[in-house]
Design brief:
This protein is mainly α and about 300 residues long. It is globular, with a radius of gyration of 21 Å.
């Protein structure tokens, strides 16, 4: 019985590997950066975000309700800006490696993230995503049923509270965007340490300059709703794609009960999640090509 289970796992893994290789070959033509499209992406992400931030400032004296309404599309364009930042970390946004680093570093100031450290952490995430033995690299903490049942009551409560919408989408953006990226691990390599420290210094200068120009309160009134909404949306996207990758790995490694119908269902859900699934197959694939209708 054990030998049959092992054979099933091996066969499933083999099918998964050949399928991934097939997808990599299919996606290869789309993995080449296109300067014109990249400039268009900047024009439809960074530029509108900055423009709407100016509009929000001008509306503060009119009605803060209007400011909050404008913060919704502003947050959407900030998410798009983060996607460009993400593609720079893969080296897939611009043809030049150095250009990707410089643009990613600049955009990191808009999304409050040190580019080099985030690029490293994201590479670790891609290397471990969905791997039951190596979970935790940029994923939403996800346990199997047996692991959850083995937790003490306090651990189960913490696991549940972490997933409470008020905490995940209320406190989560503050921790993941504003607090976490500011901290340097004790065992961080010098290059990663410098990335965080330099970004923190640059952010301090920019925030101080913005507060001097428009006032600390106005800066907070503009940035707070935009960053919180964009952070909540990013967490929702990250959580959805992480769970999809986790579910796929569980299905592939499950013995005996794996069916093609189950894989198809999970796969369809992954493609609908959209933004970060295809890079698991081809990390150099720009986000703008990650829509199923393109294939």
């Amino acid at each position: 019985m054990g030998q049959a289970a092992e054979a099933t796992r091996a066969a499933s893994a083999g099918v998964s590997h050949s399928s991934d290789m097939s997808w990599q070959q299919t996606l290869a033509p789309y993995a080449r950066p296109h300067l014109g499209r990249s400039l268009l992406d900047i024009a439809t992400s960074v530029v509108p975000y900055l423009a709407l931030s100016v509009v929000m400032y001008r509306l503060i004296g009119v009605s803060y309700l209007l400011v909050l309404l404008v913060s919704i599309p502003a947050a959407g364009f900030l998410v798009r800006t983060f996607i460009v930042f993400h593609d720079c970390s893969h080296g897939s946004f611009l043809p030049s490696k150095r250009a990707n680093i410089w643009l990613g570093t600049a955009l990191g100031l808009l999304v409050y993230s040190p580019f080099l450290r985030w690029r490293h952490d994201h590479a670790v995430h891609h290397a471990t995503s969905g791997d039951l033995e190596r979970r935790g690299g940029g994923d939403v903490r996800t346990l199997t049923v047996l692991e959850y049942e083995a937790l003490a009551p306090r651990g189960r409560l913490a696991y549940w509270l972490f997933r409470n919408p008020l905490i995940m989408f209320g406190i989560g953006p503050i921790v993941s965007l504003l607090i976490g990226p500011r901290l340097v691990a004790k065992d961080a390599r010098p290059r990663m340490r410098r990335s965080v420290i330099r970004t923190n210094i640059a952010l301090a200068v920019l925030v101080a300059l913005a507060c001097w120009l428009i006032g600390p309160l106005n800066f907070l009134l503009i940035q707070a709703p935009t960053v919180l909404l964009a952070g909540a949306a990013s967490i929702a996207l990250a959580g959805g794609t992480s769970l999809a990758g986790f579910a796929r790995r569980v299905l592939v490694e499950s013995a005996g009960s794996l069916t093609s119908g189950a894989l198809t269902t999970v796969g369809a859900g992954k493609w609908r999640c959209g933004l970060r699934i295809n890079p698991m197959l081809s990390p150099t694939l720009p986000t703008r090509t990650r829509s199923i209708h393109r294939f």
